[in-house]
Amino acid sequence: MKTFKSAFYSLLVLAATLFSTQVFAGDIVVPQSNQVRSALTKMIQNPNLKDNGISEAELFLQFKIDEKGEIILMNINTDSDYLVAFAKEKLHHQKIDLVDVPPNTVYNLKVKFELK
Fold first, then answer.
1. What pLDDT score was predicted for residue 10?
2. Range of 44's domain?
3. Angle at Cα 83 formed by Cα 77 and Cα 84, nearest 5°?
4. Domain-embedded: residue 55
């Protein structure tokens, strides 16, 4: 009876894994292409850190590039309200001209700012 229960539960788990909706790691990517990373970092250069009392900060962006080539910000994570507003102003709905970038792919990008 134990063998039957074990086999039944194994088949149940197998069926659940095969027929469930899954999100694969390939659906959310870190911009491996330097093309995307360098284009975005150029767009958010030179924030006014000194006037906003920031010596260093990290900005985590989750975004996608739509069919029209516009950046759609999905999530901005940082401790600074100024950097959130700055990133929205500089990036959200801005057109970016890149070749071979699949539309609506979700990207994650981490940017570090440091006052020198």
1. 67
2. 25-114
3. 50
4. yes
Chain CA centroid to CA 105, Å: 9
> Among 26-30, 38-42, 78-82, where is mean pLDDT lowest?
26-30
Q: What is the mean pLDDT of residues 44-52?
A: 90
* Confidence category of residue 23, pLDDT binned at 50, 70, 90: very low
- 97-101: list long-range contacts, CB under 8 Å, 24+ apart: 97/69, 98/35, 98/36, 98/39, 98/65, 98/69, 99/35, 101/33, 101/35, 101/36, 101/65
Q: What is the pLDDT of residues 63-104, one digit of tens each?
A: 999 989 899 999 999 999 999 999 999 999 999 888 778 888
Element (H, E) at 55: none
CATH number at residue 54: 3.30.1150
Report the SS3 class of residue 10. Answer: helix
In a domain, 108, yes or no: yes
Q: Tell me whether residue 17 is in a domain.
A: no
Give the strand pairing for 106-114 and 28-29: parallel
